[in-house]
Amino acid sequence: MTKQVHLAAHFPGVNNTTVWSDPAAGSQIDFASFRHLAETAERGTFDFFFLAEGLRLREVKGRIHDLDVVGRPESLTVLSALAAVTTHLGLAATVNSTFNEPYELAKRLATLDQLSGGRAAWNVVTSWDAFTGENFRRGGYLDKSDRYVRAQESLRIVRKLWDSWAADDLIADQVTGRFAREGAGAFADDGDHFRISGRFGLPPSPQGRPVIIQAGDSDQGREFAASGADVIFSWHGTFAAGQTFYKDVKARLAKYGRSEDSLKIMPAVTVVVGDTDADAVEKAAYIREQQVSGPTALVLAELLWGRDLSAYDPDGPLPELEPVVGSSVTQGRVGYNDPGPIVAEWRAQAEAHGWSLRETVINQQNRQTFIGSPATVAEAINRHVQEDAADGFVLVPHLTPTGLDDFVDQVVPLLRERGVFRTEYAGPTLRDQLGLRR
Amino acid sequence: MSTPESTSGGAASGRRQAVLGIEIDGAGADPGAWRGAEVDPRAILTGELAVRAVQRAEAAGIDFVTFADTLEAPTDVPGEVSVRLDALGLAARVAPVTQRIGLLPTITVTHTEPFHVQASVATLDHVSGGRGGWVADVSDSAEAAAVIGRRTPAPAAETWREARYVVDVSRRLWDSWEDDAIIRDAATGRYVDREKLHYVDFESPTFSIKGPSIVPRPPQGHPVTAVLARTPEALEAAADADVVLLPESDELVSQLSHLRRQSVTLGPAARAGLVVLASVVVRPRADGVARVVEQIENLVEAGVDGVHLRPGSLELDVPLIAGEVVPRLRDRGLIGTADRGGSLRGRLGLHKATNRYARSTR
Ligand SMILES: Cc1cc2nc3c(=O)[nH]c(=O)nc-3n(C[C@H](O)[C@H](O)[C@H](O)COP(=O)(O)O)c2cc1C
Asked: Residue B72: its chain A contacts at CB < 8 A?
């Protein structure tokens, strides 16, 4: 059976993928930028538009990291505004479960779902701990394992609230004056992290409840996704890694009584489209250079080594030092659990190719997944999907906000020609696009 | 015709141009408004009813709109609406389909994280191009405490004291990025000048925040902070606001002079001005346009800077307010004819907030 490809657009943000220095790069904060990318995605009949989140500005050696894009607006507010200028595109907000209360989250997401006619999604993230916690009432307070306990409970309660209205609880009878069934929305929960009760004020939207996305990669994260997510967002965009991840996660579904098509696996990928394959390769090399300046190469190396490497020359050889495990030299991003083998691999590759530190970072951290002519890219995307390396992709453009224009104009038509991507939206809701039941 | 700037801070010199706000709450301030034949009750949930009302208000030249909200769910009172959208989400939904009107969702701060509150309001200001603000409110009910489950309900005085800290830290966080912090300096590879980003290192009795904000400084510097002074405790806290909404009562005049006195005590350096509005239910459809015009005129005579109109029915009263009441107020010189464009602060005659962290020597 031919699988259908799912596609989402990631608004470029706080990472060195975003080439803010390009003359064509626009604002990272003006609403016009968000609108352009969302309208492009909707023109391309994408499943959803995705916003990441970070709750504290990242630091390197105790100072705010200043080389990548810094700062962004708050997701749910931007997406509520986008609901006004789009009609079918799903609207996915990354929102942390550690630093939010389930009742407030349920209400804000249900509002977005109502305002958009059933297009809301929640990407449940759990990171980070004490560093981010300094911006919140409770401070830094949750261990990594506890964060997933809280995330599980948050998700369970949020769902309970969304389900607290039965289908016929909204009466809205103008004659009798009954707006809702008496007691609609009543809930109570008593878990490790929450003891709450009351009434929830919003009935289900046309899609029943918002779509759940999950982005953790650990064993715990994958179990969390298998037990309750509709979409999993991963880093495993290459073919082999994608297949391994896909197999692993889909195999976890059965024990939760779920079918394999109830969880869509959508890795983050970048795409470089050129007139010809050769053009695209050249363009891709140029983009990689822009993404990793000398100073950025050093910071990325510091993240891996867990050490201050400012004395090193990015155009010189790799540091001969051994990496430090569990260092906090950089704060506010996902670190390496075990940097040793990665450093060893970097050394081997640098030696084999005669690469400088910067060249090594450029080549080893390259996440450009699809590079080629429109036909080459369409073929590769389809192959990944048909051969179970993914169910689709979250495209992370390197340019704001025009970074997906080429893809939508040139690659989407070819996927449509192949009959593996929709020519029009399947229905009004995000669940319709993802082929998910409630 | 005087400009809004020359009427700032309620400095009463000659005839002032009154500020007009309007409230969105369900189908209108009358609990039974949703039952009218002209209303599709489900349009409350999709936001359509609100969008239509705000667009009508904007076309008439009304300065801003507030969106009612509470933390706890509405209850089962027969005949009343028992659903409510999150006001912030609704305000953001309205932003791209309006151009000039200010947008002030009600946000309760007792249980909500102050860091999230300031980021959301800053974002509303960004998505609306400098028309954002909020009505800061508290939750002192047992129901609100129970749905969050984190703290026990506290007395109003305590929750309002805390709310003042939240307003304060919000402004500090809005300042935590200087206006020109984003430099995009390709030569050095730096996107921001981190000397222009500031940790707020804020400590209150109930919370602390490191900072800086995650959102770059909003277009207005400080989005407009309003307080609905519906209790004595709220009235005390209103001294910190940019806009105070005073519910119609026998005490209106004394409350007004109390606020004016406080404003003077705080001094012009401490604040950019205080706009005090009377908040009243108006029903031109039932009471007649002429009576509503008179009602508003009397309030302005009493010394307020303007009126916050709470239409009984969005579908019936807002068209009359827009089509009949506002033009008559304009004919009488009570409100300006000029389209007061620009930011919400500009419309209200408030100066752009200076950034406490910016070094003047730069
Ligand atoms: C593809 C991907 C994207 C992520 N995006 C975010 C994000 O935008 N904000 C955030 O706070 N965490 C983000 N995370 C972090 C995860 O939510 C999770 O907390 C982190 O990966 C640690 O959990 P783990 O050990 O299960 O991977 C992302 C993770 C992945 C794999």
From this structure: 198-199, 201
